[in-house]
């Protein structure tokens, strides 16, 4: 029997591969991957079936058209490696044909792959792409649809590769099976279509469909195959024999390649260039000249690993990308364990990366000759530029060799499963109409249940821990399951768990393929760029070079800040190990919106760690992670307070104490394992890495494999056998414990220092960068309250923009003696549609005339510039609407304080109460402009009777500029509040003035 499976990647159904394997082992037969339109599950499917010894075929269910008319579907299965390549070509043709692209419904984002569950391919397009496959006409084939001409064409194109299929359901399928035997001359195999999750698959499918499409549909469409029908009997001995023959003749697949970086045909130059880069670096750092031998040794060691492992192409692309973006003035940062690379450091931007020697970062955390896996480098770019990496890569290696990966959203946390599950549950419950057993739930019910678990277990566990692990360990589970509606919702969440809910283009996964052969089908995203139907975890086994490109709002803010500095001829110099004397004090009170120091957990730990060095900053990040045990935090506090080194049992060794001194006796960092291996036992890089991997990933056998080398090495280095055994067993106690990648932490700290120095030296540019990057993020925006409090504590006040001094587009800074001010830009003032009043004011400012002008002077200039006519002209007098926007825009700007330093005329004092001054200025705008528009001007101007609503004005000014005036006599003081509304309203002056 051939069991045609629809896995979790299918739009209409799902089956756990492990469960299918279990059933196939019990019932016999072979599993056939038969997802419609995709086989992203293929690598996982092959690996698991081979491990279990279950016969299996990679396949794909393909919908066919004949002359543009849909005629049914076939299942194409690969009987050897060449068949897998054939299926790739067929699915790619299907994905890229004009009809598919035209009918795909794309989402709003450029990364959308769209929704199209009904892709198809012309039968004639199969011609020439059927090497190594069998084409099976099962249920829903052109034969069953009665398309005689289509069947005839299939037979002509497929020849002996075409097979019929019997359903083998006894009397239920007797007619179908007999017709199949007749139509295909007895060349039929026995199949059973399996599309199953469990007894409530309709519920899970409904939830998935609602989640993806945002609409409700009839859940009955998902119940078509809700029985896992193993154990069918073949229609006849002939069918059984042909089925067995197909299974026995299938060749083992070798499409999953060993993990290695393939040669993508680039001519490497960095191996020569790194030496001149070293000379240039040491020339600029004379104090480092005496360490030249250390640098040479580090470079030679790394180049040796690169050569042996074939990593040169990967290095080539990373280094070229860093140089490319830096040359364009785009901040680019290398993150991850790549910070341990001396070659990356010297070939990159030295002032923006940590020197691995200074930072004591170990290469073995990044690459070794014993770890057959990709280097771990995250290329971080501003959010406005990260997408350009694809264009860069295409220009560097060729457009046909570059693609993005698929990102699968598969819910595993309780929070996400509940969120999706409630959608499907309600559609399910509405059809059941049994409110006592299946009550209808509201979204507020989902939120309430989630909050009950959060109260019991904490937000991190509910959002990040595997749902089944949480439910099995939570104290709240039993009591909540007694409540019918909570029981129903938790049951719904279980149905959604592990189910693919949405597929999009991977926002960070970019792959380069040698010979433009991606080893998987390709499709197009909304912008028409190639996307490879493979996940990030499988790219390495398909022979693809994968790069993680991180979109960073932090770098976006720094990009804006650097741009403002460049325009002013200023620069920010960074030396991680030569920071201002008061830098660490500044850090403690200025962490708002600083990457990795902004969160509440790390803020709690900052006073405990009290950073005084870069190492301390790393400790603050690592020790704040939720996996750190309370007893470890207590040990850190105790050791820091007493100056002693109370070590964990078995670790009271002078060398280990020195390794643990920065973290005060607490195991926090991956590199601490590597250092113990190196310095205590003299282990090789490969054995040290095995030790780290065993502890981090709970691999007891791997841990024991290095025991003899560790113990013997520790004895050679002066320890007794008992001491060496004791240290190793103490390390065993760490298996499964949390540890942080120090190189990764150093990358975080480097960017944090950059942000802090920008705040420290250039507060205006820092604020502008942060505001421009986060102003649309409603979750982050409340933090601007804290940010302004930080600025206020430094003696920097925020005041409304004044047209005489402010920058119309960017925040501006002012210094008056010891007083420092920041003015927001005018971008958030709601003016008339064309905002041309700002153009008129900009002309005055550019001409240097504004500082000496009165309100009347400004109104007269803006009147002629705004209308295009001289004052007292008939054209304006006969059409008063020409000045309506000018009047309201000027009133708005005055109302918001943009003219607080202006008098009505050149003789008037402006030391009046602020509110009174604004009322007076507004009172003259309309009558003065109307007089300018009159053919017969009046000799005197009568101001309007104005009284502003102070409370309303404070609210409106707050919405516009994030500042609120406090009414005082004389010059006002300003205090800042957070903006809540996304767009401040344009005030109606007449309403306000009544």
Automatic annotation (TrEMBL):
Keyword Nucleotidyltransferase: yes
Xref: Pfam families: DNA_pol3_alpha (PF07733), DNA_pol3_finger (PF17657)
Molecular function, one GO term: DNA-directed DNA polymerase activity
Stored InterPro entries: DNA_pol3_alpha_NTPase_dom, DNA_pol3_finger, DnaE2/DnaE/PolC
Residues of the DNA polymerase III alpha subunit finger domain: 568-718
GO biological process: DNA replication
Gene3D superfamilies in alphabetical order: Metal-dependent hydrolases
Coiled-coil regions, chain positions: none
Segments forming domain Bacterial DNA polymerase III alpha subunit NTPase: 284-550
Keyword terms: DNA replication, DNA-directed DNA polymerase, Nucleotidyltransferase, Transferase
UniProt protein name: DNA-directed DNA polymerase
Organism this protein belongs to: Vibrio vulnificus
